[in-house]
Write a structure and sequence with these properties.
alpha+beta; 7 helices; globular; binds aspartic acid
């Protein structure tokens, strides 16, 4: 056991209007504290990611869980996934409309063979596993002043050296019904391998999928520190265009993040650093 732990959360890559900035900072801080509490008491990276993402899903500031945007039919469809870097297990749900906490259903799928269940199949699985349900309307919050991307995510390293990553999203406003973005797809919106690191992304799902951006980032982390690995991934994204924000913890516990969007709400904490929140990478002077 190293006793070292770290956690980072994000609240989405986008332009955050002035009036909403403090809510983003506070929401990210609450979520990172929820994850840090699990890790401080010796809990697992998977449990920390679930706790942090549940806090973000509870906060209507963010487009995930409560606060989700609607598709072109005016309906909510949420996606979420979690990956356990200790054994490379993945659980994901997509196009779900009545799950109060999509991330928790994704966690319940970790021991199962399927990595991704969609729509009615995912909701049936959730029912069989005692998940919490709600009316679709309870997930929708007004975001009229907030048109950008804002998936939420978390990466955590626990004291045993295991890493987990998670994402949760209401998708893109006015997207085609049935559209699934990068968030529940391993290698696109998230990835975790305890031998290398963990990553969670937000941004334009189609661009992230076309560049398998989480996979590129993990691959870069095999030989690079997080900062250059993030720069490499953002350079790859330039081939297709699109906004993205990326959070990283590597197997040595180095925490970093980057984005090409105007803002990317992030908070991080570790055994050695108190929780702090930022809206742009340039505000965060740490060297990793
Ligand atoms: N990546 C998400 C998607 O395309 C959107 C976001 O990051 O807000 O579904």
């Amino acid at each position: 056991m190293s006793e070292r732990w770290a956690v980072i959360v994000h609240g989405g890559a986008k332009t955050i209007p002035e009036a909403r900035r403090e809510r983003h900072r506070q929401g990210c801080l609450r979520a990172v504290e929820a994850g840090a509490e699990v890790l401080r008491s010796g809990g697992s990276a998977v449990d920390a990611v679930e706790a942090a993402v549940r806090a973000l899903e509870d906060d209507p500031t963010f487009n995930a869980g409560r606060g989700s945007v609607t598709n072109a039919d005016g309906e909510v469809e949420c996606d979420a996934a979690i990956m356990d870097g200790s054994d490379l297990s993945v659980g994901g749900v997509a196009a779900v409309r009545t799950l109060r906490h999509p991330i928790s259903v994704a966690c319940s799928m970790l021991p199962e063979r399927p990595v991704l269940l969609v729509a009615d199949g995912a909701e049936r699985f959730a029912r069989d596993h005692g998940a919490e349900f709600c009316a679709p309307e309870d997930l929708i919050a007004p975001h009229d002043d907030d048109p950008g991307c804002d998936t939420v995510g978390c990466v955590a390293l626990d004291v045993s050296g295991d890493i987990a990553a998670g994402t949760s999203t209401g998708g893109l406003r006015d997207c085609a019904p049935g559209r699934v973005g990068d968030s529940p797809l391993p290698g696109c919106g998230l990835y975790a391998d305890s031998a290398i690191g963990g990553v969670s992304l937000s941004g334009e799902g189609e661009s992230i999928i076309r560049t398998t951006l989480a996979a590129r980032l993990i691959q870069a982390l095999e030989t690079d520190t997080p900062g250059p690995a993030i720069d490499h991934a953002l350079a790859v994204l330039e081939r297709v265009g699109g906004e993205a924000g990326l959070i990283v913890i590597d197997h040595r516990g180095r925490v970093d993040w980057g984005h090409n969007s105007d803002h990317f709400a992030v908070a991080h904490a570790s055994r050695d650093e108190p929780a702090r929140a930022f809206l742009q990478r340039s505000e965060d002077r740490r060297k990793t």
